[in-house]
Each structure stands twice: as structure tokens, then as C-alpha cells.
Specification:
Layout lengths: L2 H6 L1 H32 L5 H16 L2 H9 L11 H27 L2 H9 L4 H31 L11 H12 L2 H38 L3
Helix pairs in contact: 2-5, 2-8, 3-5, 4-5, 5-7, 6-7, 7-9, 8-9
């Protein structure tokens, strides 16, 4: 272990980590929004739309992320989609994760007891109010743990972005290893950075889960 080499490459490694966090957070946010929209639209009683959404989910869940990334970055210009490497990486992460988030939200909606929905409708609540005040809060409580888990998995998928020259942490690690022939030092530094990201995500997820649960318990308690 050469601390002098690590110190010399620290700025590039920190910069690469910043790009990793940017791609992961932006891609995760895009995936969450798209996944939630897909899950909501999938509840509509319109068979052709549901078939299309099911095909979307199955395609992005059933093909490797690397293949999807190459199709977006290298194949995009053939259909008029010209993106930088970083933008293609963010879009790729968003589309890839949206299929998983859609299934997570679908499971969350399915976890809401049917009796609660029927009770809301029996007291005259509109479908919109039932969704916003009964179905959605219950679904979010059930969905938070798997969402956090998926975000952790997605953070480690960012290493693939180096293939299309996104200057993230893996790319900087490969550069460091090639220039100094100290592969162990570079891999050790990358492992530490990813461990910090995963640990921070896990802790934040537990806090969000406890806050959401406490909020819903307060809302459900009698006045």
C-alpha cells in the first residue's frame, strides 16, 4: 500500500466519486419517477397500455445493463439521440432502474389491504382521495425498504459507466492503476468510496423509513 500514490491521485479519485454520486442520484431519481408513473398507469383498466408497460418492464429487467448502455450511447445517434457519455449514463441508469422501481411500487400497491380501500369508498371518498390518502401512503410504507435496497444496488452498477468513458470512480481507478501499476491501491480506494456511499444510503433509508412509518401512525391515530 503506497499512501503517497493515493495522496497524489486523491483529487482525481474524489472527482470521480463526485461524478459517480451525480450519475447515481440523477439516474436513481429519474428511475423512481418513471417507475412510479409506470406503476400508476399500470393500474388503469386499459389493456393495450398495460401490455406495453409490461413489455417495457420485462425488456429492461431481462437484458443486461451494459447492453442497454451501449444501445443508448452508441445506437442513440442513429435515431437522432446524441448524448454525452455522462448524460447517456444517467439516462441508462434511469431507464434500467425504472423497471425495478415499477415492480417495487406495484408490490407496494398490492400490499395495501383491500378492506381499507373499500372502507374509504364506503364513506364517500373519491377515487383520487382514496389514492392519495389511503392507497399511496400504505404503498409507500411497504415500498421504502426495497427502494433503498435497489438504490444500493444501483450505486454499484455505476462502475459499468466507465465502459462508455464516463469519468466516474472506476474510470479514475483504472487510470491510476495504468499509470502507477498499483492496482491494489486503486481497488482499495474504490472499495472505500463505495462502502461510504452504500453506508450513507443505508442510514438515510432507515431514517426515511422510520419517519414515514411514524407519520402514518400519527395520521392513523384518532384525534
Amino acid at each position: 500500500m503506497s499512501w503517497e500514490v493515493l495522496w497524489r491521485y486523491a483529487p482525481s479519485l474524489v472527482g470521480g466519486f463526485g461524478v459517480t454520486v451525480l450519475c447515481w442520484s440523477a439516474g436513481g431519481a429519474l428511475g423512481l419517477v418513471l417507475g412510479f408513473v409506470v406503476a400508476l398507469l399500470n393500474r388503469l383498466p386499459f389493456a393495450p397500455l398495460r401490455w406495453f408497460l409490461r413489455a417495457f418492464v420485462e425488456v429492461f429487467r431481462g437484458t443486461p445493463f451494459l447492453v442497454q448502455l451501449f444501445l443508448i450511447y452508441a445506437g442513440g445517434p442513429y435515431v437522432g439521440l446524441k448524448l454525452s457519455a455522462t448524460a447517456a449514463g444517467i439516462l441508462g441508469l434511469g431507464l434500467y432502474s425504472s423497471a425495478y422501481f415499477a415492480e417495487i411500487f406495484r408490490g407496494g400497491f398490492a400490499a395495501v389491504p383491500l378492506g381499507q380501500i373499500e372502507a374509504a369508498m364506503s364513506v364517500g371518498m373519491s377515487p383520487r382521495d382514496t389514492l392519495m390518502r389511503v392507497t399511496l401512503p400504505g404503498a409507500l410504507i411497504a415500498a421504502v425498504p426495497p427502494i433503498v435496497n435497489m438504490l444500493i444496488v444501483l450505486s454499484k452498477e455505476t462502475v459499468v459507466l466507465s465502459i462508455i468513458t464516463v469519468p466516474e470512480l472506476m474510470y479514475q481507478m483504472q487510470t491510476m492503476a495504468a499509470e502507477t501499476f498499483t492496482a491494489f491501491d486503486a481497488i482499495f480506494a474504490m472499495a472505500v468510496f463505495y462502502w461510504l456511499l452504500v453506508e450513507a444510503t443505508s442510514r438515510l433509508g432507515r431514517r426515511v423509513e422510520s419517519r414515514v412509518t411514524a407519520f402514518m401512525a400519527q395520521e392513523a391515530s384518532p384525534a
